[in-house]
Amino acid sequence: MNPFASLALIWLQDVAPAAGASPAPVTGHAVFGGNSALLDMLQNSGPVAMAVLAILLLASLYSWGIIISKWSGLKKARVQSERFLRAFRKATRLEEIAAVSEQFKPSPLVQVFDDTYAEYRRQMMTMGQVRSFTALERASQNASSESLTRLERRMTWLATIGAIAPFVGLFGTIMGIVDAFHGLGSDGGATLRAVAPGISEALITTAAGLAVAIPAVIGYNQFTARLREIAARLDGFSRELLTSMEEIPAATTSTDDFSRQREAPRGLHR
Q1: Residues 80 and 106 sit within 8 Å (Cβ to Cβ)
Q2: Strand, helix or coil for residue 82
Q3: What pLDDT digit, counting tens, does each position of 177-226 carry?
Q4: pLDDT, tens digit (0-9, with 9 covering 90-100), for 158-180
Q5: CB-CB contact of 190 with 5 (8 Å)
Q6: Cα torsion at 18, 19, 22, 28 (round to 10°)?
């Protein structure tokens, strides 16, 4: 027979009222077991369930730490990127941006500018002009990749926790059902009291697994969307910066006015 059908028959036998007896009224206390119902279920849980709950608790704390830190870090990156873009488009010389770039350090655009500008300065100091725009593009692409990788750090943990937490809870559920049938066999009677501890254990671990997984999945999806937006902004800024450097006449130095030769900014606009 199906094990769940067996449990249903046991429950019906256990709760069926005696012939001629009036059923007991169902109260809120009887349904929920008072304020200590959850505590009672935890106390009735076996060592396997307690180990599963401990693992899920640690995973939940770690995922919430990642969520809070990522939310704060991406917010700072967005605000500082907007400020840096405004300063970049108002500046008339590359050195002006280089002098104040440290003020916008949380922005991933700063690393793109610093690395590309360092390569630009190296070519200007050794050859007097920019001879390899390929090197500038390579420096810009590498800086963009490093900035994005730094922002994506620990994101895989959110995805992992969101994916495996329900299965960890399911493991506790299975072990609870196994314990329920073991109690049914050792008790010698088909009563609900024999299987209740295992069922409560199974319900707790299932609920805990879902409670851990849902915030992790939501956070991962939200942060992934924001990182895609940042990646697009990095690409746009890289093109804008390289265009600005390319339009500087070959005979100029790094301190010459570069805004006179620039077209309107081509980067992303908010």
Answers
A1: yes
A2: helix
A3: 877 776 666 655 556 666 666 676 677 888 899 999 999 999 999 999 99
A4: 999 999 999 999 988 888 787 77
A5: no
A6: 30
